[in-house]
Each structure stands twice: as structure tokens, then as C-alpha cells.
């Protein structure tokens, strides 16, 4: 398990522990930052894993979390900027999203356009690739069992793009440090990204 707290733009703390025989775990001295932290568990023997997000909001608080392990696999492949596979797309962001849970992982393609994303829950996985300037590609692949590795190559195409902005409030006051997620509809179902609101609640 790992507990990651992103307290500011340059502050990141990671803790690790091993679960006890009854599956319990604990982390002490988790800082109150007003930011969401992530818990991730993975068993390399069974290729089962789980993840969850939470927040410590005040001093002395104990956050009680339950993680449910699922079989996981990997998605890999190459991203190309041409239809004939002659131009690999380096630096493209690839997102793999398991359709049933919405859990996702990301990777950046290397010089040869290759990517690999591990610890994705088994099931139908939607894959999206996005390059600088807006060219993108989408596809679907199936992970049938724990430890499986599915391969999917994609070819980028260019279409017009735009942006989304707004403000998060509690009905009266703006909320800074909130996580805002974006997931489009078909065919952009797996283009997932997230940002934090600024001190005035804007994103």
C-alpha cells in the first residue's frame, strides 16, 4: 500500500507498509493538507489490486478505508501519427480506463511511440491517446484475467478542440484545492484528466 499526499506543487510524500494477517494496515502522521491522497494496494503474487482516495481534514482524524482487491492486468502498444505506422508519436499521453469501475492509469509514449500501463482492473478497457496540439485516438481492448497483457496500437487524428473552466463552491464560498475530473462522452469516453482548483475555487 502507498499513501501519497500532494500538499503543494513541489511537496510529495509516499509511505509504504505491508498488511497484517487480517488485511489491516495503518499510516501515522498523515499531514492535514486539505488535499486528496491516494491509497493503492497490490499483490504481485495474484496480480490483484485496489485503490481509493480520501482526505484528512482535521488534526487527530482517523480515516477508516476498505479496499476491495480485483484481478488486474496491463495494456501496452504503440501510438503512431500516421496511418502507415511509419511515424511513431513520442510524448503522447495514453489513458486506459476500465469501463465498469472508471479506474484508470496513464503513461507517456517513449521515442518509439511505445506505452505500457499496468495494474488496470480486468474487463473492458477504453484506451485514449492525446498528443500535443490536439491529435488523438481511441480504442477498446479486453483484459480477461489477472496478469493478462493486452496490446493495442492506435493512430492519431486531428479534430478541433476546446477547453472547460469553472468554479467550485459549497453553495456560498469557493473551495480551493478541490479535485475536478473530466471524462467525455463517446467517442471520448476514456479521455480522463483532473486538475486542482486554485485558492479562489477556479479551474
Describe this structure in words.
The chain has 203 residues and is mainly beta. It is built from no helices and 14 strands. Strands 1, 2, 3, 4, 5, 8, 11 and 12 form an 8-stranded mixed sheet that branches. Strands 7-6-9-10 form a 4-stranded antiparallel sheet, with no helix packed on it. The relative contact order is 0.15.
Mean pLDDT: 83
Element-level helix/strand string = EEEEEEEEEEEEEE
List low-pLDDT spans. Answer: 1-12, 186-191
Name the beta content range: 35-45%
Structural category? mainly beta
Span between termini = 30 Å
Tally of contiguous helical segments: 0
Number of strands: 14
What composes the largest sheet? 8 strands, mixed
* Relative helix content: under 10%
Q: Rg from C-alpha positions?
A: 19 Å
Shape: flat
Question: Any descriptors?
Answer:
203 residues, mainly beta, eight-stranded mixed sheet, 14 strands
Question: What is the topology?
Answer:
Blueprint: E1 2-8, E2 11-16, E3 37-43, E4 48-54, E5 70-80, E6 93-98, E7 104-108, E8 114-121, E9 123-130, E10 136-143, E11 149-151, E12 154-155, E13 179-183, E14 192-196
Parallel strand pairs: 5-11, 5-12
Antiparallel strand pairs: 1-2, 1-3, 3-4, 4-5, 5-8, 6-7, 6-9, 9-10, 13-14
Q: Concise description?
A:
By secondary structure, the chain is an all-beta fold.
Amino acid at each position: 500500500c502507498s499513501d501519497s499526499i500532494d500538499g503543494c506543487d513541489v511537496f510529495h510524500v509516499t509511505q509504504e507498509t505491508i498488511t497484517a494477517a487480517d488485511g489491516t494496515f495503518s499510516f501515522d502522521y498523515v499531514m492535514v493538507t486539505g488535499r486528496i491522497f491516494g491509497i493503492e494496494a497490490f499483490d504481485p503474487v495474484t496480480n490483484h489490486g485496489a485503490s481509493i482516495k480520501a482526505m484528512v481534514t482535521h488534526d487527530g482524524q482517523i480515516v477508516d478505508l476498505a479496499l476491495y482487491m480485483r484481478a488486474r492486468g496491463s495494456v501496452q502498444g504503440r501510438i503512431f501519427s500516421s496511418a502507415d505506422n511509419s511515424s511513431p508519436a513520442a510524448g503522447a499521453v495514453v489513458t486506459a480506463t476500465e469501463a465498469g469501475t472508471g479506474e484508470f492509469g496513464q503513461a507517456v509514449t517513449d521515442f518509439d511511440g511505445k506505452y505500457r500501463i499496468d495494474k488496470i482492473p480486468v474487463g473492458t478497457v477504453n484506451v485514449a491517446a492525446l498528443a500535443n496540439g490536439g491529435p488523438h485516438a481511441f480504442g477498446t481492448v479486453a483484459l480477461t484475467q489477472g496478469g493478462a497483457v493486452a496490446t493495442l496500437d492506435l493512430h492519431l487524428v486531428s479534430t478541433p478542440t476546446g477547453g472547460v473552466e469553472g468554479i467550485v463552491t459549497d453553495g456560498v464560498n469557493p473551495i480551493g484545492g478541490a479535485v475536478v475530473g473530466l471524462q467525455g462522452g463517446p467517442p471520448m469516453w476514456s479521455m480522463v484528466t483532473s486538475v486542482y482548483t486554485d485558492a479562489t475555487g477556479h479551474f
